[in-house]
Design brief:
The protein is α+β, with helices and mostly antiparallel strands. It has two domains: 72 residues; 138 residues, no CATH class. It is 32% helix and 27% strand.
């Protein structure tokens, strides 16, 4: 196939055009996807900053917590730990080492409701059958922490939300409904990350902010658009230099 534009003659095959259009469409779509992510991240970071400025979050008996609003809010709770029924969230990596997040139910005084408190990270034993000692000294206490969604995993396998039968119970994916069924009492659909200054906790490296700023998403978008432009220039350049054959 030949296309003449002024004194410029371009030669290409139908296959090369289709391949070019498909690749350019993919690159451009990736660019717009990153722009969309940048807009979402900018809004999310703004909500983070607003949450940091607000005071303590208060739980009320009939309050349905909107995690998009409550996330990263500081909270203070009085009650007691259910030390006999704790969860170990498997496959959590800290500083390149595999371990567990220790999730302990905390029954809130005056609300008769329970929230899972993330007491931090403990290292996995060489023998997986030997679970870490997660004993709690002070059962009745007042804690402070930060509201957050449950830990997430990259690949979710079938049955990952099903906890083991023993206590402490090991589970890979936190589903508050599934875990509350095993406990036989309801749980809030979020965790409280225990404050670093409090005892009865383990290694606590809570992420302070989102890992990737909005500007980085925008930079990625520019890269994708740049690749689309480069591909276009190359396609035209190759077509111009092949006047005696078809690519």
């Amino acid at each position: 196939m030949t296309l003449t534009i002024g004194k410029i003659e371009l030669k290409f095959s139908v296959f090369s055009i289709i391949l070019y259009l498909v690749l350019v469409a993919i690159l451009i779509s990736l660019g717009f996807w990153q722009l969309g992510r940048a807009e979402q991240k900018a809004g999310f970071l703004e909500r983070e900053r607003e949450s940091e400025k607000k005071g303590l979050f208060t739980l009320k008996p009939d309050l349905k917590v909107d995690l998009s609003v409550a996330r990263y809010r500081k909270i203070k709770l009085t009650g007691h730990y259910d030390a006999k029924h704790q969860y170990l969230i498997d496959n959590q990596i800290i500083n390149g080492q595999v371990g567990y997040f220790v999730m302990t139910p905390f029954k809130i005084k005056g609300l008769n409701k329970t929230v899972l408190v993330n007491r931090g990270w403990v290292k996995l034993n060489k023998d997986r059958r030997v679970l870490p000692d997660v004993t709690i000294v002070n059962l009745k206490t007042t804690i402070t922490g930060r509201i957050n969604h449950f830990p997430v995993v990259g690949i979710r396998l079938k049955g990952a939300e099903t906890p083991t039968k023993n206590w402490p119970s090991v589970v890979q994916v936190v589903n508050s409904d599934v875990l509350s069924e095993k406990l036989a009492y309801p749980l809030y659909p979020f965790q409280v990350e225990l404050d670093h200054s409090l005892k009865d906790g383990y290694i606590r490296i809570w992420k302070e902010k989102s890992t990737m700023p909005a500007e980085k998403h925008t930079a990625y978008a520019v890269q994708w658009f740049g690749l689309a432009l480069t591909l276009t220039v190359l396609f035209i350049g190759i077509s111009r230099t092949t006047n005696d054959r078809t690519i």
